[in-house]
Amino acid sequence: MRRMPWRATKPMDQKLLFIRACERDELPMLELCEAFGIARKTGYKWLTRYKEHGVLGLQELSRAPQHQPNATSPEALDLITELRRERPRWGPKKLLAHLRPKWPEVEFPVHSTTSEILRRRGLSQSRKRRPRTALYSQPFLGYDEPNAVWCIDFKGWFMTGDRKRCTPLTISDGFSRYLLRCHGATRTDFTLVRFVLLSAFSEYGLPDAIRSDNGPPFASSAPGGVSRFAVLLIRLGIRPERIEPGRPTQNGRHERIHRTLQEETASPPSSNRLAQQRAFDTFRRDYNEVRPHEALGQKPPAHLYRPSTRPFKRLLSDPQYPDDTEPVRVRTDGTMKWNGHHFMLTDVLAGELVGCKRIDAGDWLLSYGPLELGAVDRHGHFRQKKRSRRVLPMSPG
User: Fold this and answer.
1) What's the CA gap between 14 and 9, in Å, rounded?
2) What DSSP assignment string belongs to 84-144?
3) For residues 156 and 152, what is the distance between their CA atoms, to the nearest angstrom?
4) Which of 64, 154, 264, 328 has its CA 20 to 30 A from that of 14?
5) What does the pLDDT read at residue 397?
6) What SS3 state is found at 286?
7) Selection from 186, 184, 190, 183 nearest residue 165 by Cα
8) What is the pLDDT of residue 133?
9) What is the largest CA-CA distance in the chain?
């Protein structure tokens, strides 16, 4: 039998020709299907659809499966959407880490599917990729355990609704990211820093080291950059650490907290300083106890942090020096007398105990605790170390 070629026409036209040929009943179904170049099963399918639904039954149907066994349940979709609207700055991983323990009977999708769900529902937008800066390495203490290193810094200032200046002072634990303090300060002097620090010491104990930048009041133009802040730490047996100037990535964990703090509490700012402090306090509780942290296995910082085993004692002690270092007390006017010579050191160390160690014939290295200050020669000339950030090992107290 001659085969009927498919012409370059629409598929619907060919189907209608087949149906008309079937209605004329000129050929058996097998021969008719062979003539149109289709399987007999397809021919019967077209005919059945035409009888049930007319011409509309011949339209192409979607090949998508009617049932998707891996589709996200409506309950999971609602919970993800609701939490995202409540926490608009939480990403898919944090959303799922918070929802899964709370709703164990609900099967939630993976984070990539959750990201797509948020995108389809208009609850996310693509972020611009920011250039990454290579980290600068320096022999700081490691974040090996809670209270090994605390980080301290002032976040950039902003205006509250009543046009008053607010400069948050923050302290965090480097290991657990636990936010120990977030104080809405109006000034950045040492008196304020001392008050907030002592409050944190009283509650959590003492860390091994505290890392800061090189701005006041954490550092100064005195020899070795020593400041009253550093003096306080050293007398408490805490190692002061300062990052390289212009290298905030060396304190990157703490800087990341500042970014989240800005987004959650100051965009926009509160109406006044008291309201802003309440926002800081609420944020600190939520950040420490509720908000999952990706670097901590999607656990909040409170799951990893524990107070220090070193209790805070308000009695300050002089630094302890090795046997090869001779301690000398700085005079109340900041001057120092050594080997019959009198010279100006710094009033920051007035009344403090400085260590003198012979390094060359007639030259002596001066240090305050672990901080190198400079050298004094046989003629009593003191040479300050330029931009020195070297920190010696802490002597046992």
Assistant:
1) 7
2) HHHSTT--HHHHHHHHHHH-TTS----HHHHHHHHHHTT---PPPPPPPPPPPP--PPP--
3) 13
4) 64
5) 46
6) helix
7) 186
8) 36
9) 130
Q: Quote the CA–CA distance of 207 and 8 in Å, as a whole number.
A: 82
Asked if residue 154 lies in contact with residue 122, where contact means CB atoms within 8 angstroms, the answer is no
Which DSSP letter does residue 174 get?
Answer: T
Backbone φ and ψ for 291, nearest 5 degrees, come out as: -65, 120
Give phi and psi for 240, each to the nearest 5.
-85, 135
SS3 151: strand
* pLDDT one-digit tens code per residue, 45-58: 888 888 888 877 77
CA distance 174 to 149: 6
**Distance of alpha carbon 138 from alpha carbon 126, whole angstroms:** 35
Domain residue ranges of the chain, discontinuous segments joined by +: 11-58, 149-303, 326-384
Q: Looking at residues 309-321, what average pLDDT do you find? A: 90
Which residues, at least 6 apart from 189, have a Cβ–Cβ distance to it below 8 Å? 216, 217
Extract the tokens encoding 274. Answer: 């008291």
Examine the pLDDT at 198 and tell me if it is beyond 80: yes
* Strand (E) or helix (H) holding 36: helix 29-36
What one-character DSSP code corresponds to residue 186?
A: S
Residue with the two structure tokens 């939520």:
286
| Mean pLDDT on 11-29 | 81
Can you say how many angstroms the Cα of residue 63 is from the centroid of all Cα atoms in its chain? 45
Give CA–CA dist 118/268, Å, rounded.
24
Interstrand relation of 209-212 and 149-154 (parallel, antiparallel or unpaired): parallel
Contact present, 383 and 263 (Cβ < 8 Å): no
- Superfamily of structural domain 149-303: Ribonuclease H-like superfamily/Ribonuclease H (3.30.420.10)
pTM: 0.67
Neighbours of 261 (CB within 10 A): 21
DSSP 293: B
* Contact criterion met (CB below 8 Å) for 233 and 378: no
Residue 2 has pLDDT above 50, yes or no: no
**Is 319:235 a contact under the CB 8 Å cutoff?**
yes
- Pair 374, 294: CB distance under 8 Å: no
Cα 46 from Cα 43, distance rounded (Å): 5
Cβ atoms 374, 336 nearer than 8 A: no
Q: State both tokens at 201.
A: 């010491």
Alpha helices by DSSP H, 189-272: 190-204, 228-235, 252-265
